[in-house]
Automatic annotation (TrEMBL):
Domain Ion transport span(s) in chain numbering: 86-384
Classification of source organism: Eukaryota, Metazoa, Chordata, Craniata, Vertebrata
Transmembrane regions: 83-102, 122-142, 214-234, 338-355, 367-384
Keywords: Calcium, Calcium channel, Calcium transport, Glycoprotein, Ion channel, Ion transport, Membrane, Repeat, Transmembrane, Transmembrane helix, Transport, Voltage-gated channel
Protein name per its UniProtKB record: Ion transport domain-containing protein
Annotated InterPro entries: Ion_trans_dom, VDCC_alpha-1_subunit, VDCC_T_a1, Volt_channel_dom_sf
């Protein structure tokens, strides 16, 4: 047998804290042999002492486990308390600084408070970067048991790299706010430091297949409700009361608004029902105009000769219900397409403002449309959770 096939073994002795040199032979110890890529070129075989068999024998092509820089890093990473506790304290400090940051008041960061927070942020970033370097030296970079072989370490790597890009852009006087938002991911580093929290997150991820079935059922139910809403009420929430098509005014006089608006901001619009629908509200129900707490009673012919304290009731001329161009709440509430219908459905199932939306639809289409909203809430809060729990139980 050649020397390469059966090399002469070296024993591994007990490794003490801070020991960084190679070890001599010792009887009865476990025999671990590796070929080192950074040993003397003139020797045909190099034998490495591997005090930590679960880690890579050599990283960065030349750092062995017994080499002083890497040995120190390994002991820092494998020690359960000092580095982890310091890291958790830094993460808590980062949460405090993120909560104290006021971007609207400190746009140019000229105040003393903002500069102090920036100094803390730089210290936190440097700590995370050094921690990443220590782990890379101890574990290696690529490989199943190396630094980037762990999912949470990849998250830490992404956060550090995003911070590096942020500081590089600051040096170039480039403002890229999207990179700054990565700072909010820093508290997630605590998951990698607290073992119990990491176990809980991993359990949630392990059940993602069941969650996919539940989400698929919810998507199917909401898709059905969205289609019903689009088919019944597409464009109806844009109905407004306009003047008649042949309505004319004397030169120099204009209507206060192109259509009737109860309020100037049009946040709570007056939605009327078309002639072919059976909605609750119609343009004949538009109230008289009021100015200064008084009800207006003059006609348009008296606009130029109005007496002191009297005003023209312009609201009496908004008599034609017609589909306009604006939906309620800046166009966010409507059933014009399936996307907006889903937005309305999500707002309804949160039980926030759903009554107002129901009234809009009842005013424009039919009184009996309340059945849709009541049934949607019952399905979302009672039937759907029971069905989802049954799916998870069966799975």
């Amino acid at each position: 047998m050649t020397t390469e096939e059966c090399p002469v073994p070296l024993g591994v002795s007990q490794v003490g804290a801070g020991l960084c040199e190679d070890f001599g032979p010792s009887q009865g110890d476990e025999i671990i042999e590796e070929v080192g890529p950074c040993d003397d070129v003139g020797s045909d075989l190099s034998t490495l002492v591997v005090p930590f068999p679960e880690l890579a024998p050599v990283v960065f092509f030349c750092l062995k486990q017994t080499t002083c820089p890497r040995n120190w890093c390994i002991r820092m990473v494998l020690s359960p308390y000092p580095l982890i506790r310091i890291s958790i304290m830094v993460i808590l400090l980062n949460c405090v600084t993120l909560g104290m940051y006021q971007p609207c008041e400190n746009i140019d960061c000229t105040s003393e408070r903002c500069q102090i927070l920036q100094a803390f942020d730089a210290f936190i970033y440097i700590f995370f970067a050094l921690e990443m370097v220590v782990k890379m030296v101890a574990l290696g970079i690529f490989g199943r048991r190396c630094y980037l072989g762990d999912t949470w370490n990849r998250l830490d790597f992404f956060i550090v790299m995003a911070g590096m890009v942020e500081y590089s852009l600051d040096l170039q006087n480039i403002n890229f706010s999207a990179i700054r938002t990565v700072r909010v991911l820093r508290p997630l580093k605590a998951i990698n430091r607290v073992p119990s929290m990491r176990i809980l997150v991993n359990l949630v991820i392990c059940y993602r297949a069941n969650h996919g079935n539940v989400l698929l059922l919810c998507f199917f139910v909401f898709f059905i409700f969205g289609i019903i809403g689009v088919q019944l009420w597409a464009g109806l929430l844009r109905n407004r009361c306009y003047p008649e098509e042949n309505f004319t005014l004397t030169s120099g006089i204009t209507l206060p608004a192109p259509y009737y608006q109860p309020e100037e901001d049009d946040e709570r619009p007056y939605i009327c029902s078309l002639a072919q629908d059976n909605g609750i509200m119609s343009c004949s129900d538009v109230p008289a105009r009021r100015e200064g707490g008084r009800e207006c009673c003059l006609d348009k012919e008296d606009a130029l000769a109005s007496a002191m304290g009297l005003c023209v009731n312009w609201n009496q001329y908004y008599t034609r219900c017609h589909t306009g161009h604006t939906n309620p709440h800046k166009g966010a509430i409507n059933f014009d397409n399936i996307g907006y219908a889903w937005i309305v459905i999500f707002q309804v199932i949160t039980l926030e403002g759903w009554v107002e939306i129901m009234y809009y639809v009842m005013d424009a289409h039919s009184f009996y449309n309340f059945i849709y909203f009541i049934f949607l809430i019952i399905v979302s809060f009672y039937t759907l959770p029971c069905m989802c729990s049954e799916i998870k139980h069966v799975s």
